[in-house]
């Protein structure tokens, strides 16, 4: 059972559930229900392809396999990861062709940034590097790309005016920044060993936690403004406020030596907490 749970987390299949939860949060906030369409399938299959590919590439090139449990564990599952990536790529290609031309154009830049995050495709000083190799960029790149795909890119946001749609984007961006930055605290030793300059290993854990806290406060503030300016149900803010409290509970307890479960369920799990709260409250009211 423990091996199955570890594979679910370390292969990043768990991230697929988190992305689905983020999509559900957007749909519930805008129309009060969840729906599945070609755009949703495209995002999910892209996640299925990219995240395990990122993990597989990391396993192959990592200098820190003895330091990191997840990298050491996934060494035994490289073939399975490759199969998951191939399934994800097949689904991504199929549903990309099902998108409208406008949707295809809108996803080009985010797709490139997603690839550039994990693989060396950016030319710098005569060599190719990854987006995550650039100083301090990692958490902001993840937050921006995932925020765009799970808000503005979704057809459901076309029901909103431009200001409200981008308001959703920035609210999601601050939420993801708040829950992503702690993972750099988790990876403090590994990132130093790999030569990555991140906020925690350059500015320290305390400053990183403050930045994450400020992002979380910004998320709550924008959640309140979104409800006020769009006449949305107050239950939307209630769910998001409780979710923010959940994140804060784990944030104040964050240390580099916390377990993988602490980070995965505490921070990534916050998206699942929010969508579950929304589903319960929407059906109760």
Automatic annotation (TrEMBL):
UniProt xrefs under PROSITE patterns: PROKAR_LIPOPROTEIN (PS51257)
A GO MF term: transferase activity, transferring alkyl or aryl (other than methyl) groups
Gene Ontology CC: one annotated term: membrane
Keywords: Membrane, Transmembrane, Transmembrane helix
Subcellular location: Membrane
Transmembrane listed as a keyword: yes
Transmembrane segments: 7-29, 41-60, 80-101, 107-124, 136-156, 168-186, 207-228, 234-252, 261-282
Topology within the bilayer: Multi-pass membrane protein
Pfam families on file: UbiA
Name of protein: Prenyltransferase
Organism (species): Salibacter halophilus
Lineage: Bacteria, Pseudomonadati, Bacteroidota, Flavobacteriia, Flavobacteriales
């Amino acid at each position: 059972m423990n091996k199955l749970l570890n594979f679910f987390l370390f292969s990043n299949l768990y991230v697929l559930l988190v992305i689905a939860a983020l999509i559900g949060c957007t749909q519930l906030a805008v129309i009060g229900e969840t729906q599945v369409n070609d755009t949703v399938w495209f995002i999910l299959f892209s996640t299925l392809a990219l995240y395990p590919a990122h993990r597989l590439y990391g396993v192959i090139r990592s200098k820190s396999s003895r330091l990191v449990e997840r990298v050491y564990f996934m060494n035994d599952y490289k073939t399975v990861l490759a199969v998951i990536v191939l399934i994800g790529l097949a689904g991504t290609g199929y549903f990309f062709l099902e998108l409208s031309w406008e949707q295809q154009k809108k996803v080009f830049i985010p797709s490139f940034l997603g690839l550039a995050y994990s693989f060396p495709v950016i030319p710098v000083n005569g060599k190719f590097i990854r987006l995550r190799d650039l100083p301090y960029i990692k958490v902001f790149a993840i937050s921006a790309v995932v925020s765009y795909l799970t808000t503005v890119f979704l057809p459901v946001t076309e029901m909103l005016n431009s200001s409200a749609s981008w308001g959703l984007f920035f609210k999601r961006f601050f939420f993801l920044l708040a829950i992503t930055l702690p993972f750099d605290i988790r990876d403090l030793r590994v990132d130093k060993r790999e030569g990555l300059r991140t906020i925690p290993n350059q500015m320290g854990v305390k400053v990183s936690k403050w930045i994450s806290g400020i992002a979380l406060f910004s998320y709550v503030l924008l959640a309140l403004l979104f409800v006020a300016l769009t006449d949305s149900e107050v239950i939307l803010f209630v769910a998001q406020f409780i979710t923010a409290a959940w994140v804060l509970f784990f944030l104040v307890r964050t240390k580099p030596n916390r377990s993988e479960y602490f980070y995965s369920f505490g921070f990534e799990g916050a998206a699942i907490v929010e969508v579950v709260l929304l589903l319960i409250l929407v059906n109760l009211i």
